Amino acid sequence: MSSRPQTNPQQQQQRPFNLVRCTAIVLLTTIVLVGLAVLIAWLVIRPKHLLFSIENGSVSNFNQSDTHMNSTFYFTIRAHNPNRRLSIYYDSIKTSVAYEDQPIAYSTIQPFFQPHRNVTRIQTKIVASNVPLTPGSARDIRLEKGTGEIELYVYVWARIRFKVGVLKSNERRLKLACSPVMVHFSPTQHFERTICEAGI
Ligand SMILES: *[C@@H]1O[C@H](CO)[C@@H](O)[C@H](O)[C@H]1NC(C)=O
Ligand SMILES: *[C@@H]1O[C@H](CO)[C@@H](O)[C@H](O)[C@H]1NC(C)=O
Ligand SMILES: *[C@@H]1O[C@H](CO)[C@@H](O)[C@H](O)[C@H]1NC(C)=O
Ligand SMILES: *[C@@H]1O[C@H](CO)[C@@H](O)[C@H](O)[C@H]1NC(C)=O
């Protein structure tokens, strides 16, 4: 009978210690298992960067005054998805063309789905209609036109979702910045491919 009151305080001291230890072990195991699952998923999917470039560009109906400009630009954007398992929904795509730091015109592109290991060429037509120019831009564009080519920036903003098997990711924003895009006024001139920088 005298031994019971002695063991009781000992058990009460050990119980909180065991609880902490158990919780720690369960937590640690969970973290290790989740980490392993992420690692295996990553190894299976092996995500690779998406690659974008401007393959062709041309200009037509160009006309400018000292204050305004009209022009139609055509670009071929090459989108390369090198992934073996990831496919991509392009839910909304907007493009713009800029001269120096001044946006000239915008356009939207039809949403599309890109399968894995696929190259898709997107044709875009951007119409600049009576765009106001700063006196500096008007002068510089005139000077560049005299050389037969103009240096432009092409930007793309897209909302995309990734698909792996039946799993789909949340929507992410993709931004492309392509420069310098040298567009020739003479259609016989060879277009130099421009790599786009991509940010997700
Ligand atoms: C580039 O675009 C121009 C005008 O649209 C076209 O005439 C030319 O064939 C295209 N070049 C290539 C390599 O696709
Ligand atoms: C360009 O616009 C001016 C007036 O702003 C006009 O006189 C001229 O004919 C136009 N040129 C072309 C090629 O459209
Ligand atoms: C651009 O086109 C508009 C009509 O669409 C015309 O009124 C304007 O004069 C043109 N501007 C130039 C610089 O050609
Ligand atoms: C890429 O996917 C598009 C749309 O599914 C298809 O039309 C095209 O042929 C594919 N291109 C290649 C190189 O697989």
TrEMBL record:
InterPro entries to which the protein is assigned, alphabetical: LEA_2, NDR1-like
Keyword presence, Chloroplast: no
Membrane-spanning ranges: 20-45
GO biological process: defense response to other organism
Keyword Cell inner membrane appears in the UniProt entry: no
Topology versus the membrane: Single-pass membrane protein
Places the protein is found: Membrane
GO cellular component: plasma membrane
Main location: membrane
Keywords, alphabetical: Membrane, Transmembrane, Transmembrane helix
Residue stretches making up the Late embryogenesis abundant protein LEA-2 subgroup domain: 76-176
PANTHER family: HARPIN-INDUCED PROTEIN 1 CONTAINING PROTEIN, EXPRESSED, LATE EMBRYOGENESIS ABUNDANT (LEA) HYDROXYPROLINE-RICH GLYCOPROTEIN FAMILY
Name recorded for this polypeptide: Late embryogenesis abundant protein LEA-2 subgroup domain-containing protein
Source organism phylogeny: Eukaryota, Viridiplantae, Streptophyta, Embryophyta, Tracheophyta
